[in-house]
Design a protein that fits this description.
The complex is a heterodimer. Chain A contains five helices and seven strands. By secondary structure, chain A is of the alpha/beta class. Chain B is an all-alpha fold. Chain B folds into two domains: 101 residues, Helicase, Ruva Protein, domain 3, CATH 1.10.8; 34 residues. In chain B, 20% of the residues are buried. The chains are: A alpha/beta, B mainly alpha.
Chain lengths: 183, 137
């Protein structure tokens, strides 16, 4: 048995076991690491896709992507009246609007009546609201749910994406990104 | 009794009101008229991930965003785009994660290369072993 011509060192016999244990360790780490289920938009750092959404409310302009490139940074909030976390973030959006941040809304798969009710109950921070009834613009933005908020700089480039509701502790980051976008 | 029935009916109706999410996406639940195009769209939809219910394809999922994605796929197929163009459009926005069909990228090429390398190593080892035996006899 031992007269094989290839003389492998004695420790080499442990090599397959070590490889296997390394593999098991990798699997265990992967299994127990808390997974990030958010699908971030791949458009961050790129320019906003072109779109022109009709008005979601009478008397309020719809959202044309051209206004996002008017030289000033904007927040674009993807929301809906049927979305519960959108109610949670409403006070924060209100605070941002009060601080002078232009907030543009994209209302996804919604109706005028529901939207009006939602804004009456939760406050209305939006300058414009575009109706994305078939969800096409949401897909074009790389948004995988509501609410999502995009910071867009004056040239119409997406510089930051916030996924999920804006809680009070997120305001700092958003204001910072808006400030950076305005420089 | 009538009142009771009305009450029960109201109680049953409540969840319907709670889930008002209305989409006008035309092809979310409608097939394309051309069966060949519909087959193409269906094959593509089965390999695209629903972004909300992440274990399902958009063909399997009843989530509203999956409906929007199905409609997008069907409308673009109808307009003459190829399935791979549509997949590329979605990957451009959501990353590789949106596609169930694995893409060959800078990150994933070892997955494709390792089986070949292992086969090659196995072949070399076996050949050495067998030729060594042959020489020993």
């Amino acid at each position: 048995m031992s007269d094989l011509p290839a003389k492998a060192p004695r420790w080499a016999i442990w090599l397959p076991l070590a490889l296997f244990l390394g593999f098991v360790a990798l699997v265990i780490v992967g299994l127990y690491r808390p997974a990030d289920r958010n699908v971030a938009s791949a458009l961050v750092g790129k320019s906003m896709p072109q779109f022109d959404l009709p008005a979601a409310l009478p008397g309020r302009p719809g959202l044309d992507s051209k206004v996002l490139a008017n030289g000033k940074p904007h927040l674009v909030n993807v929301f809906a009246s049927w979305c519960i976390p959108c109610r949670v973030e409403a006070p924060q959006l209100g605070a941002l609007a009060k601080a002078g941040v232009p907030i543009e809304g994209i209302s996804v798969r919604d109706t005028t009546e529901n939207l009006q009710g939602f804004l009456q109950t939760n406050g209305d921070p939006f300058q414009r609201i575009g109706a994305d009834d078939d969800g096409k613009v949401q897909l074009a933005l790389g948004s995988s749910g509501v609410p999502e908020t995009y910071v867009v700089d004056g040239k119409g480039t997406i510089v930051y994406q916030h996924i999920g509701e804006i809680r009070p502790e997120h305001l700092g980051v958003l204001l910072e990104k808006l400030k950076e976008a305005g420089e | 009794m009538k009142r009771l029935i009305a009450l029960v009916a109201l109680a049953l109706a409540a969840p319907v009101f709670a889930q008002e999410e209305q989409s006008t996406a035309p092809y979310a639940y409608r097939q394309l008229d051309d069966p060949a195009q519909e087959t193409k769209a269906q094959d593509l939809m089965e390999t695209l991930r629903c972004l909300q219910c992440q274990g399902q394809s958009i063909a399997d999922s009843d989530a509203p965003i999956a409906g929007s994605m199905r409609s997008l796929v069907r409308e673009r197929i109808k307009a003459g785009e190829t399935p791979e163009q549509i997949r590329a459009w979605l990957i451009e926005r959501y990353g590789d994660y949106v596609s169930y069909a694995p893409q060959l990228t800078g990150l994933t090429w070892p997955l494709f290369a390792v089986p070949g390398v292992l086969l090659l190593i196995a072949f070399l080892l076996l050949r050495r072993r067998f030729s060594a035996k042959g020489a020993g006899q």
